[in-house]
Amino acid sequence: MPVVESWSPVTIEFSKPVRNAINERTGAALGDSQKFPLNWKQSEACVISFESN
């Protein structure tokens, strides 16, 4: 049987705002915030890089 990829909306929330967040899976710049809504591919990890304040 083929593998069915499943996507779910999630929100990553940090305790303090971060700067220059990047979704390392897609390369998308997410900007500066404390919360980041993403579509999560359940067979992969969410990988976010950022500069802390």
Structural class: mainly beta
Number of domains: 1
Q: H/E order of the elements?
A: EEE
- What is the oligomeric state here? single chain
Question: What can be said about the biggest beta sheet?
Answer: 3 strands, antiparallel
Shape: elongated
Binned strand content: over 45%
Provide structural commentary.
The chain has 53 residues and is mainly beta. Helix content is 0%, strand content 66%. It is built from no helices and three strands. It has strands at residues 7-23, 29-41, 48-52. Strand 1 (7-23) and strand 2 (29-41) form a beta hairpin. It is elongated, with a radius of gyration of 13 Å. The mean pLDDT is 90.
Keywords:
mainly beta; 3-stranded antiparallel β-sheet; elongated; 0% helix; 66% strand; 53 residues
Short summary of the structure?
With 53 residues, the protein is mainly beta. Helix content is 0%, strand content 66%. The protein has one domain.
Topology readout:
Layout: E1 7-23, E2 29-41, E3 48-52
Antiparallel strand pairs: 1-2, 1-3
